[in-house]
From TrEMBL:
UniProt keyword list: Membrane, Transmembrane, Transmembrane helix
Protein name, entry field: DUF3352 domain-containing protein
Organism whose genome encodes this protein: Nocardioides panzhihuensis
Transmembrane regions listed in the UniProt entry: 27-48
């Protein structure tokens, strides 16, 4: 029988303790009460309106996106102690990327392999970006990057010097630059990579929003620029993402992508048979409508799964917690070799799990890119 972890924190009770009561002056009590109430109201308003970088980025994601990945480059640089800017060398940028990789913080980004080339020739890179959002759907893929106080004219000069074809529209504000004819290999120097992501083939700048927008499809990029931020992601995705707080990196998937891409559909017959047996032993499960997983600044990984209703969430909090400490079909070994399972809770239709990686295990990239028993549908 699989062990059942503690699902919810139990309240502590205190008994048999006596204390001496000190009575405060009524006016002091009233004054303190007013200050406390004011502080509570202030903090409540701040919490409601604060919004993190992930929230800001997701508001710009195309409504049809089924897979979204987020990378907080400013937070990652702070996490690894990297003090970089536009004058940093490509080697220094690579050093930061390598350190972030060892902490499993870069699997959400499409930029690491080209970081040196970006730093030297594009005028921006993971050394200077605030955050990056990469989205995929059946209609196309989009990369958005936030660069505070961006100098669009300077970035235009960078693309011009590299050989990008200038747009007919305003080259510094919304026009699409074409990089299909750029010989990126010719920019290779000692210590500089020449690898460039296809997602940077077409690029546009939106200086009023401090955004760099790119895609491997020219028409898709143009359409997205015209409608940027006007749609909403699938609600189960945002419900799951709302439980992530302010992560350093995160994946957010819709239900269909979760089931087809990170479920056990691609596993061997033996692994699928083993998974079926584990599910039968754990109890009832339901399809996941929205899935999110994030690396937190603390080093923990947080998982959020949206279900059809509250009842399904409560049921799956129990069964999936049991699965999370057992064997990992399709990946090998067991989940409890990879992480220690922390608190598991169901709130409304969303289940959250707190995972503490063991011995530097790459939990985020491991669980988000392969057969994942959590995603069984």
């Amino acid at each position: 029988m699989l062990p059942t972890p503690q699902l919810l924190d139990r309240p502590r009770t205190w008994a048999g303790r006596s204390s001496r009561v000190l009575r405060a002056h009524p006016l002091v009590t009233i004054a303190v009460g007013v200050v406390v109430v004011a502080l509570v109201i202030f903090l409540a308003r701040a919490w409601v309106t604060r919004g993190g970088d992930l929230d800001e980025a997701l508001r710009l994601a195309p409504s049809e996106a089924t897979r979204v990945s987020f990378t907080d480059w400013a937070g990652i640089r702070e996490s690894v102690g990297a003090d970089l800017d536009a004058s940093s060398t490509p080697a220094e940028v690579h050093e930061m990327i390598d350190e972030a990789y060892t902490k499993d913080l870069t699997s959400t980004s499409v930029l690491p392999d080209a970081s040196g080339l970006l730093q030297k020739h594009f005028g921006w890179s993971p050394a200077t970006l605030d955050w990056e959002l990469y989205t995929q759907s059946t209609e196309g893929a989009l990369m958005l990057a936030h660069l505070e106080d961006m100098d669009a004219d300077q970035l235009v000069d960078q693309l011009t010097s590299m050989g990008f074809t200038a747009p007919k529209d305003d080259p510094a504000d919304g026009g699409v630059w074409d990089g299909t004819l750029v010989p990126f290999s010719s920019f290779t120097d000692s210590g500089i990579d020449s690898t460039i992501s296809p997602q940077l083939t077409y690029i546009a700048f939106l200086p009023e929003r401090d955004l760099i927008v790119a895609s491997d499809g020219r028409r898709y990029l143009g359409d997205q620029i015209e409608n940027l931020g006007e749609g909403d992601l699938h609600e189960p995705m945002t419900q799951a993402a709302d439980q992530l707080g302010d992560p350093l990196s995160a994946f957010v998937y819709d239900g269909d992508f979760t089931c087809s891409e990170i479920g056990l559909g691609g596993a061997s017959a033996a692994d699928q048979d083993q998974a079926d047996g584990l599910v039968d032993a754990a109890g009832d499960i339901n399809p996941i409508a929205g899935f999110a997983m994030a690396a937190e600044p603390s080093g923990d990984v947080r998982v959020a799964m949206t279900f059809e209703n509250d009842d399904q969430a409560r049921t799956n909090a129990d069964t999936r917690a049991k699965l999370a400490v057992g064997p990992a079909p399709g990946q090998g070994g067991t989940f409890d070799e990879r992480f220690e399972l922390g608190k598991v809770a169901a709130e409304d239709a969303v289940v959250t799990m707190q995972l503490q990686p063991k011995d530097g295990t790459a939990v985020l990239s491991d669980l988000a890119n392969g057969p994942l028993l959590f995603a069984t549908c």
